[in-house]
Amino acid sequence: MDVKAIIFDLDNTLLDRTTTFRNFVHRFNQQFFSASSENVHQLNTDLIVKLDDDGYKQKPQLFAELIETLPWPQGDLLPNVDMLMDFYANEYVNEATLMSHAEEVLSFCKNRYKLGLITNGMDSIQYGKIQRLNIKHYFDSIVVSEGAGVKKPDRRIFDIALRELELSAEECIYVGDHPKNDMEGAALAGLQTIWLEVNQPWRDDLNVVPLKKLRQLRELIYFLA
């Protein structure tokens, strides 16, 4: 393989979204349910994590559902969606946590390839997480769906990254966790793919064969070495 660039997904690939989101939920309980019992906090956590759907539910919808379903303390002012979105924008970004060995992997790859990042989400949230994780300097191209006007799995978002990297699809490997958004999307854009198995199970209806399946991000080093 004449590989000249590695392009990464962000959430659940370089960013440990499970830890990040659970830490955010802990802050959420502290902020809005400070007088509630630990049992209530745990029930809230379980419900929020379930409704969040590993980050694939739109946040305004998630917070609207939480306003309707959580046992908000009586007598307190019930927050609205805008208030919860503002809280999320600040606190979720502050809790951003790198995936185990992500820095080691990025350093290894940076010495050998151009690096790109393609992520779905709001510019403020995604760039905020990138800054918090202190990884921006690794990348020659960063494409966020809101600013790009198109999101994975649409091949056009991959084409934007390829233009910025000044490379062909055949010269790039894409690493991500989502079978459809990452693996199928990148493959249909002509990129080679590596699947990091995290929370999303493989889908039998996908006609995609990744070069490699990783259980841990660090395995990418051994594959590329």
From TrEMBL:
Its cofactor is Mg(2+). GO terms for molecular function: metal ion binding; phosphatase activity. It comes from the Bacteria. Keywords: Hydrolase, Magnesium, Metal-binding. InterPro entries: HAD-like_hydrolase, HAD-like_sf, HAD-SF_hydro_IA, HAD_2, HAD_sf. Signal peptide: none annotated. One of its GO terms (biological process) is small molecule metabolic process. SUPFAM superfamilies: HAD-like. NCBIfam families: HAD-SF-IA-v1, HAD-SF-IA-v3. This is Hydrolase. It comes from Paenibacillus swuensis.
